[in-house]
Design a protein that fits this description.
Length: 313
């Protein structure tokens, strides 16, 4: 869907290519990299075995947008790109999936726990951070550039959902609520639901303020498992004394590293999914700059990835 904004594209500053050096993360079974029409799309083998299902997690390669002299598949309406490029990229992405006859339904994401159930195509994009449907032909889509994309599939009731889980949505239990909403709307039993947790920023690259530990432990019994250090953010800042600097001049206290994938997997288990039905890739958008966009690493000139799921008509 075209964006109403018609601002002129800005030229992105060139960055050192070392900032996109591959650090870690390999594509291993059951994940595969499907290549079609010059694009590389990450897919999950258990999903690909369902002939009526369309799904995919986009990568940055092979599109028509220009970023640092590189042709990239930017699928979000960004200031540095043109609406024409983005719409062309979206058409190419759908064609590579064999989904050009499906109706693409992206959301106006607001970092919430709001899920939109669709029975047909809305006239305008809806606000929310998750969507669900049991209607064939509707291609649910969410956009990310570090946040966690999650696709849910119920092979029994033939219902699907797409979830955008940043730290705010995760804290608001968007993933757990989405499973409950699928049961309410479509009768999907959690034990039958399959989940794919796609590429996102890993704990290796996602440093947050120490008070995030308190935010999450207030909501989740196992929250300390999501962090590399069980600090609350209320401890004295040791850097002040190590540097012998007066209050107000000391460097900020060290943060902690948050594992959003683990947090959302925990929500899926709490919602009743079976462990063997939850598939998590360890591909980090921060580490794998050769494949993905990362807002943490690239800032406002990052592009947007898209994760989609649908049932064929």
């Amino acid at each position: 869907m075209p964006s109403p904004r018609k601002s002129s594209p800005k030229r992105a500053p060139r960055r050192d290519s070392a900032s996109r050096t591959v650090k870690s993360g390999k594509i291993t079974y059951p994940w595969t990299l499907h290549k079609s029409q010059g694009l590389a799309i990450l897919q999950l083998s258990p999903f690909s075995k369902l002939p009526w299902l369309v799904h995919g997690f986009s990568t940055r390669t092979g599109g028509g947008s220009s970023l640092e002299g590189e042709r990239v598949l930017n699928l979000g309406f960004m200031e540095w790109d043109t609406p024409e490029n983005v719409n062309a990229n979206r058409r190419k992405f759908q064609a590579a999936l064999g989904a050009q006859d499906l109706t693409l339904l992206p959301l106006k994401q607001i970092h919430s726990a709001l899920l939109r159930p669709f029975s047909d195509s809305p006239k305008e994009p809806c606000k929310g951070d998750a969507s669900a449907t049991n209607t064939p032909g509707l291609l649910l889509a969410i956009q990310t550039a570090d946040c966690v994309p999650i696709l849910l599939v119920d092979p029994q009731k033939r219902a699907v959902a797409a979830i955008h889980a940043g730290w705010r949505g995760t804290l608001s239990r968007i993933t757990e609520k989405a499973v409950g909403r699928m049961y309410y709307e479509y009768g999907s039993k959690p034990a039958n639901v399959l989940a794919a947790i796609g590429p996102s920023i890993g704990p290796c690259c996602y440093e947050v303020a120490a008070d995030f530990v308190s935010k999450f432990t207030a909501q989740f019994a196992d929250a300390t498992d999501y962090f590399d250090e069980p600090r609350s953010g209320e401890e004295p800042n040791p850097l002040q004394w190590l540097n012998m600097m007066p209050p107000g001049h000391q460097p900020p206290a060290k943060g902690v590293h948050l594992d959003l994938r683990k947090a959302n997997r925990s929500q899926l288990l709490a919602a009743g999914l079976r462990p063997q039905n939850i598939f998590v890739t360890d591909l980090c958008t921060g580490c794998r700059g050769d494949l993905f966009f990362s807002y943490r690493k690239e800032g406002p000139f990052s592009g947007r990835l898209m994760s989609v799921v649908a049932m064929r008509t």
